[in-house]
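JOB MANIFEST
job_type = single_chain_structure
chain_count = 1
residues = 290
[input]
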Amino acid sequence: MEDLLRPIYQERASNPNTLGILIIEKNKPISPITDNFDVILLVIMSEAEQSWLVKHYEFDGKAAAMHVVDEEQLKCWIDTSTYRRAVEWVINGQTVFDRNEYVSNLKQTLSNFPTDRRKLKLAIEFAKLTRSYQEARDLYESKQYLDAYSRMLRSLHYLGRLSIIEKGYHPEVIVWSQVKRIDIETYKLFEELINSDEEIDKRIELMLLATEFAVSTRAKESAKHLLEIMNTSDEPWSFGDLKVHPDISAYAMDLTSMVEYLVNKGIIDVVRVETKGEGIYHRKYKVSRQ
């Protein structure tokens, strides 16, 4: 297959801005990793005209997709998990062109999973988890059990991804087989939710209790990215200042639920600042010293 695609990728390799090219082949009938294409070509560029260009091809009864991605766009996908397939393409793809060992070094970086990137990914998944868990609890208390079940399942998905990152791995597109290998306790929660003979309301009630324990024990470590940012200033932070901080942009949409959860757990303290209105205070935040 590589021979058939060589004319396409060699044209890209001749471009001085091309940093590397990888090939990822479909290895089973249904392949989420390749979007069910027979083969993916990932072309990594510096200073690309478009941050992400996709072209589809047919050859010899097969289908291929070529993704031409700007280096900065790829780094954003990797750091924020916004396009998880790309991470697997880099980790598992066959390198067919590598300028100055760019791809080799990138693979090594992903394998090592540097601490700063791990902290960011933990914060992203933790923020999603706190929002999803709180929504599941609210739906359960409103007796909307089917919706609560759906939201509980999503909460466990975030918890599973969180546990994978904790162990130093990048979450894959197919998460639960990975969780089963890495964190059997979280996997058992997932099994219990979907396979239990209990009534649906009872299953959700039990999962809420189990998930609350799992979330609370991970809270401080998972929120370290946010807490370290807050510790860069001696002054308490307004929520608005936190929300627009450039290093928090990847989880800004879920920041409210994350901060409220950390306040409830005593990890973040609320500081009240007087306003001109009597009895009305600005609410600011600082990391608890307890």
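[summary]
The beta strands are 18-25, 39-45, 52-59, 62-70, 94-98, 237-238, 268-274, 281-287.
The CA atoms of residues 192 and 198 lie 9 Å apart.
exit_status = 0
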